[in-house]
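Researcher: Can you fold this with S-adenosylmethionine in place?
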Amino acid sequence: MDTPVILKTFRNGKIKEYFVMREGELHTDLGIIKLDELKTKTFGDTISSHLGIEFIIRKPKAPDFFKYAKRSGAPMMPKDIGVIIANTGLCSSDCVLDAGTGSGILAIYLGSIARKVITYEIREEFLEIARENFAQAGLYNIELRHGDIVEEIQKLDEKFDIVTLDTISASHVVSHVPRILFPGGFLAAYSPFFEQTKDIRDAIGKTNFTELKTIETIEREITFTDRGTRPATARVGHTGFITIARY
Ligand SMILES: C[S@@+](CC[C@H](N)C(=O)[O-])C[C@H]1O[C@@H](n2cnc3c(N)ncnc32)[C@H](O)[C@@H]1O
């Protein structure tokens, strides 16, 4: 599949940005851009609209997929994904089991680093969006599987370095994770509510996991204006808790 590009320009002190495929036309208030021309261009080149406005062509990275990719539901926020990557030490030799896939945003971040990601989604109608997002990200090391992770994990004979769970059924999956984790591997479970988090921790408590911790990350962007510098008044509120445990 063709991969998307980011078109970016600065007008009157503001950034205008578009996430586009390399075909058809894009109609903007800065003119029409013939996207087919992108096929003969490379990242760092420019393309002009029919009004002569120049756009720089940039390569999309995982945060661009968080911002612009099609969604089947709410993806995990980069601040929470960062906590998972940092606390599990995800690296290029790792094999990751992920569930549920959702829009595939967490899987895209994981797949950008890891050797392989196997991700399960229970809802068949969500598979196509995730599959398209993986192809657009150019990540062919992500294997998308349809199924209920609670049942599917019991049939797996592969071993993993990290298991990431972002599904309501996470607490029912936990007891099966040690069998498929390499010793030293990590479990990272995301849960939006205290109650789910408690269930996940109780399930972990019945296993041989160690180094158990639950984290909530508060992100505060700093604004810089003529009046002064301070944390933004509007900010991301609570998203979820990340529970990490090591086998
Ligand atoms: C919050 S979304 C995951 C978002 C994803 N981490 C991302 O960043 O895009 C949760 C997903 O888990 C799926 N799901 C729920 N229960 C599941 C199960 N038992 N097995 C597999 N997927 C499941 C849901 O259909 C939904 O798409």
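Model: Folded with S-adenosylmethionine in place. The first helix runs from residue 62 to 68.
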